[in-house]
Amino acid sequence: MKYTPTIGLEVHAELKTKTKMFCNSKNDPDEKQPNINICPVCMAHPGTLPVINKEAVRHVLRVGVALGGTLADFTEFDRKNYFYPDLPKGYQISQYKYPLVSGGELNGVSITRVHLEEDTGRSSHETGGESLVDFNRAGVPLMELVTEPVIKTAKEAGNFARELQLLLRYLGASEANMEKGEMRVEANVSVSETFASADQCRTDADSRGNILRNSALSPRHSATLGTKVEVKNINSFKAVEKAIEYEIKRQSELLARGEKVVQETRGWDENKGKTFSQRLKEESHDYRYFPEPDLPKLHLRELPEFHEDVLRKELPELPREKRERYKKEFGIKDKDIELYISDMRLDRLFTETIHFFKDDSNIAKHSNIVAEFIQLASNYIVSDLVVLAKSTGQNFNKIQPEYLSLLIKMIAGGEISSRGAKDILAIMLSEGGSPDEIAKKEGLAQISGKEELKEIVEKIIVGNPGVVADFKSGKEQALQFLIGQGMKETKGAANPKTLEKLFKEHIT
User: 196 pLDDT band (50/70/90 cuts)?
Assistant: First the structure.
């Protein structure tokens, strides 16, 4: 029997704001001292009142515009009631019936909703049997994005999560570092014998088009889609894919044995590479949602700064747009484009470097030469600079784009060899400096003058009569051997094209 998986994701991302969601306590994900960024409001002391963080609302709305979603005309916050030790209020302020964003699409995956809530504290379990709670994170603005149950593979889920991280970083909404817990992925996985149609997977909504359910897989569809299992504690993209793959396999094996899949919440054990049962899955009614009485209802159209056209004008160039432009404008490899898209520092170095080609009047008037220089620059950045940086643990801060562009010009002009260029690049990475000065200091300038190389060529010809004879008989490899000897003799400083020309001239 063949089983079809259906996957929906719930992604939480801590937003980049100065203060928490409903108070003035500092929002600092790097704070190491526990329980320092707290106040009576986020600790829910009696008599305190929350105030909505406008910047957090703005972040979520900008995400909605970037996703092509529908921004809410009306929204409100709700109390989500449950009791965990890391929840100081005994409830969480979230959104249920009226999310800030409905619909949208990213990386080919349809979005159900994007809403705003506050984060919980952080629990740690000590070896002595004690459990400690750090409330620094409690109340931090938390965006939750819920996808439609349309993802079919673990790889597709992982790619979606990666693309969402990129989008959040480009928008400046969140750093979304999974290793810090700034972005957390929960996967809802079901396995069935048949695939649900698009109509069967429609979204529950009220008369205003507001999403009513707060889950990536609706229990209403469980008979068609299979029983939903939610997997939590996923803290890396690799783990997202591994956890989903394991859960698909686990559920398929249960069904193959004629057993039932239990609707539950499971955790992911990275060390064991398997999911484990945590608790039975709660439904919406279990949380006893009701409108937050201490916060005003928001009519967003009454706030000009939240108009969609205003927010759209503020958007930077998004990852998908940059991919299309780089492919069309530069013609570089897809894998190189992805590297630039995913690493903003590297992208900045690349774009600032190639600007010097375009600003050089001698180069700019020849479009083919500009394209050649751009390709050469990209090759050295991706194939050499990135490798050097990884192997040495260094960053690119000491490399100035102007000097990198000069290095590319020196390579193209035959002033240095490819071997010399790599040596110069290593020095620029570790120490900085201008490539022409480094080449002069280290003796890496390429010898291109015929007179300088003539004596060396004649010496090699005399010392290798057999190879010379082979070349005369038409063996091209013999010439390459002779050129190699010339490069060895000059310690890589000779221009190989000049050597080739001289050997052909002197061997008659």
Answer: very low
The DSSP symbol for 230 reads E
Give the span between the Cα atoms of 411 and 416, in whole angstroms.
5
- On average, the pLDDT of the chain sits at 89
Tokens of 226: 């299979």
Q: Where are the alpha helices (DSSP H) in 68-208?
A: 154-171
Q: Does domain 450-506 have CATH number 2.60.120.650?
A: no
Q: Where are the domains of the chain?
A: 4-314, 319-442, 450-506
CB distance 91 to 79 below 8 Å: yes
Asked if 41 and 48 count as a contact pair (C-beta separation under 8 A), the reply is yes
Side-chain half-sphere of 203: how many Cα atoms within 13 Å? 24
In the block, tokens 């004596």 appear at 455
Q: In 3D, which of 269, 178, 286 has the Cα closest to residue 231?
A: 269
CB atoms near residue 125 (< 10 Å): 9
Residue 419 CB-half CA count within 13 A: 14
Long-range contacts of 89-96 (CB under 8 A, 24+ apart): 89/44, 90/44, 92/117, 92/118, 92/120, 93/21, 93/22, 93/50, 93/117, 93/118, 93/292, 93/295, 94/118, 94/144, 96/214, 96/284, 96/289
Instruction: Name which residue leads in pLDDT, 109 or 84.
Output: 109
Q: What is the DSSP letter of 392?
A: H
Query: Which residue, 139, 149, 169, is CA-closest to 77?
Result: 139
- How far, in Å, CA of 225 to CA of 193, rounded? 8
- Contact between 435 and 410 under an 8 Å Cβ cutoff? The reply is yes
Cβ atoms of 38 and 165 closer than 8 Å: no
Q: How far apart are CA 333 and CA 331, in angstroms?
A: 7
Q: Helical H runs in 281-333?
A: 308-314, 319-329
Query: pTM of the full predicted structure?
Result: 0.82
